[in-house]
Amino acid sequence: MTRPCVIERGARFEGILAFDADVEIAGELVGEAVGYGASVLAVAAGGRLRGDAELHSLHVAGEVEGEVRARGKIVVDAGACARGRFFAAALEVRDGGSIDGPIEMTGPAQEG
Q: Residues 5-32: what's their mean pLDDT?
């Protein structure tokens, strides 16, 4: 099993992060996240994404603020907060998680 690339707690990345394998943000990403293939971007508890994202799937345990376009699923865990505009094939907000902003369901998940 391949470990995801990690932006560690206390680290801050500014700019465009393009990836084709799983990525975990435990620190902060300010800018844009672009995921290719079936990769997953995970924002860990205490982690932050401030900016736009276009990717396959997003799993939020921390904070997200921006526009997210997911070809697959967006999951917001208990205690997590997502604010912005959201486009996804599937959405799951677990008890205690919050999502604030317009949501557009785009239909079946697409690869690519």
A: 95
DSSP string, the chain: -PPPEEE-TT-EEEEEEEESS-EEESSEEEEEEEE-TT-EEEE-TT-EEEEEEEESEEEESSEEEEEEEEEEEEEE-TT-EEEEEEEEEEEEE-TT-EEES-EEE--S----
Q: Where are the domains of the chain?
A: 5-104
Indicate whether this model's pTM tops 0.90. yes
- What percentage of the chain carries pLDDT values higher than 70? 95
Tokens for 46, please give them: 């205490």
Cβ(39)–Cβ(18) under 8 Å? no
